[in-house]
Amino acid sequence: MSSKSINPNLKHQPAQRPVSAASLITELQSPSHRRALGRAITLLESTQPEDRRLADELVNLALQHEPASPTFRLGISGTPGVGKSTFIEHFGLEVANAGHRLAVLAIDPSSSLSGGSILGDKTRMEELTRHPNVFIRPSPTGGHLGGVGAASRAAVLLCEVAGYDYIIVETVGVGQAEWQVHSMTDAFLLLAQPGAGDDLQGIKRGILELADLIAVNKTDRLPEAAKQTALELRRGLHLAPARPDGWTVSVLNISALTGKGLTNILEKLREYASKMEATGYFRTRRATQRVAWLKEHAEHRLLADFRKFMNREVRTTDEPGRILDEHSSLSNTSGVILAKFYQSKHIENKNSET
Fold this sequence. Notes:
The chain is α/β, with parallel strands linked by helices. A 7-stranded parallel sheet has the order 3-2-4-1-5-6-7, sandwiched between helices. Mean pLDDT is 82; it is low at 1-6, 109-122 and 142-147. The radius of gyration is 23 Å and the shape is globular. The chain is 52% helix and 11% strand. The protein starts with a helix and ends with a helix.
């Protein structure tokens, strides 16, 4: 059955690759920037060789772009069920109504079958999605660690090129690997829920010392439990190492559903941004993030090349199995395979030079 027999008005438009990175940058700064931004982020997430080359050119051009006004990048994390989507919808409206152009990068868990997003946060932020000054993009992690997607850093950059001055990055959840969102944002907001129990202990061990602001959500439903949770979090903060920026982390009680305390969060983040700008800490933090991005990009490319090499070896020669049979230890086998990988990359580089 054809698509037209299902819906005769349906007009299929296959995705088209942009003519050039320069033309896409121009589109990002035009009135039709929303569609261009969606295409650009899709390009960043692609694994096709042609798309990867174009994406690299796009990022290089974006790095040369200076935003017209200062931008603010906020990372948000919390345990599953804490109400991140509800919080972002209502807090995002506060941000947008305050005159900011807001971009939300909602990172969803990846399906193990398709590799796509499972949750689709955009469908759960209906009111925020309709706001004229808001852009929302759900993206899969693609199995990437750190609670963010492999293309998240570049996506933030492209949102700034498109004129968005307030960027929210929502991570998958909270855990020991969630440190990465801290290394790509200006501020890190941790959402906690009342009566978290063991989850609260996990937060203390994992990322409590990374948070710039903590908010205990759902105080409308469990006010007493929220007060107790906030007290435990404040005690945990006293055990954290001294901060290099001199900032004192606040723990606020809020209700994302009713909007209680959201204005306080916006004001507290403004205070934080103002102090960090005045001391030069923001510039230092972003400079450090650029180095982290370089390291992450190099590691990602190296791992992708190695996986490609291993898939080719297994598919064409079963060389890894033969080497494993010939060597007595796993470490020796790994050494032989790595040597073959480095040799293959050396040959590829020589061929590309000629």
